[in-house]
Amino acid sequence: MSGVGSGYDLSVTTFSPEGRVFQTEYAGKATDNGVPCVGVCCKDGAILAVEKPEETKMMLPNSNRRIFTVSRHCGMAVPGKLPDGRQIVSRAQQEAENYKRFYGETIPTKVLTDRLANFCHVFSLYWHLRPLGSAALTASFDDDGPHVYLSETNGVSYRYYGIAVGKGRQGIKTELERMKLDQMTCKEALKAVCKCLIKQRDDSSNKKFEIELAWISEETGREFVRVPADLAKECEAAAKKEIEQEEDDDSDMEG
Fold first, then answer.
1. 168: left (phi over 0), alpha (psi -120 to 50) or beta
2. What's the pLDDT at 59?
3. Of 70-74, 91-95, 135-139, 235-239, where does mean pLDDT reach its minimum?
4. CB of 72 within 8 A of CB of 223?
5. Helices and strands counted in the chain (H then E)
6. pLDDT confidence bin for 112, thresholds 50/70/90
7. By C-alpha distance, which of 183, 118, 113 is closest to 142?
8. What is the structure's pLDDT at 242?
9. Reduced to 3 states, what is the DSSP secondary structure of residue 119?
10. Whole-number pLDDT of residue 1
11. Following DSSP, what letter does each residue of 210-242 receive, concatenated?
């Protein structure tokens, strides 16, 4: 049998001679090829941002949401396959509710993201299941401050200052590494995040797009909410203007 998996990708419980599980890698590629999602942790909160292409002109704005509320102090963005992402969000909501009911307090972000990673890992343990083609980018604000975590489909979870998942993630990560996120407020970071998403877009794509933004900060009372529409449009317009100005400056230098 020819191909990348050479027969070792027929079951999720089969290891290749090199120790690889191809179906899990395929699920990771589904996430990497999904819509760009960004999470950043600032000095006063955390931001989640998703760039969504307009699938059809008949689709209403905000009808294909990628950012969901898990609890009052926690939210989540899902790159990759949206139906699989909804399963992860639903599990996160159940975990948060059960923890609150049993212990009488909000679930710590580390505990939640580890449980989500374990949930995703279960789908790579049994032959009758398939790995989930989505990851979970979590933003929260608890007693330890703001957090951004990424729970991957292979069952690992890490905490980040800033992380990007999906198409163009390498370019966005490079831009994020140049920022001093620990010195920026969420309002300052909103424009920077929009700029990162717009710069990584493929110029050959004529599809319209919208940027979905949500945040949790001191300004929102440590409650996870969507960024007000007027503020989101203002940040997006400012980012586009700044990019155009940089392109004009580069053209002048080349001339």
1. left
2. 79
3. 235-239
4. yes
5. 6, 10
6. very high
7. 113
8. 86
9. helix
10. 38
11. EEEEEEEETTTTS--EEPPHHHHHHHHHHHHHH
Residues 60, 4: Cα–Cα separation, whole Å: 40
- Top CATH class of 22-254 equals alpha beta
Distance CA 160, CA 164 (A): 10
The domain spans of the chain are 22-254
HSE, CB side, 13 Å, CA atoms: give it for residue 6.
Answer: 5
14: left (phi over 0), alpha (psi -120 to 50) or beta: beta
Strand partners, 142: 145
* Cα 41 to Cα 14: distance, rounded to the nearest angstrom: 38
Task: Give residue for tokens 């203002």.
Answer: 234
Q: What is the pTM of this model?
A: 0.87
